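Appendix B. Chain record.
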Amino acid sequence: MDVLIRDAVDADAPVIAELLTQLGYPSTVEDAAARIAEWRESPLSRVVVATLDARVVGVLAFHAIPFFERAGRRGRVVSLVVGEEARGHGIGARLMSFIETEARRLGCEDLELTSSRHRSGAHAFYRNLGFEDACHRSARFVRPLSAPSD
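Structure tokens predicted for this chain:
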């Protein structure tokens, strides 16, 4: 099994759109291409793909978030998906290992990610990589910007 991790390129947009759709986030090729281009412009962001025998089978989007209250950064895995046909072969772990190295290079002290509560398989995967569910330490508040303010 010849797995290679590399930066996403415009030509990867169709497969990335399909992978995001598999994850439950329907995406068009045009949407995926625009995101690849936008993220490419940021020195603190990376979109990488995993290829298996030259075929894209996974994608990971990452951003290094600078702290304001102190020095340093936190790495955030914004999206990770491995295609259904390629799961269970260590590709997700390879993507995470790659981005952990990148996060260190960018001065990140730790990595965070979110995962919907119904994704128990993903939670086991993250725990196996040393992540802990930290929801008990802080709350996550979300407010759509389209909502009227009180």
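Further analysis of this model is presented in Appendix C.
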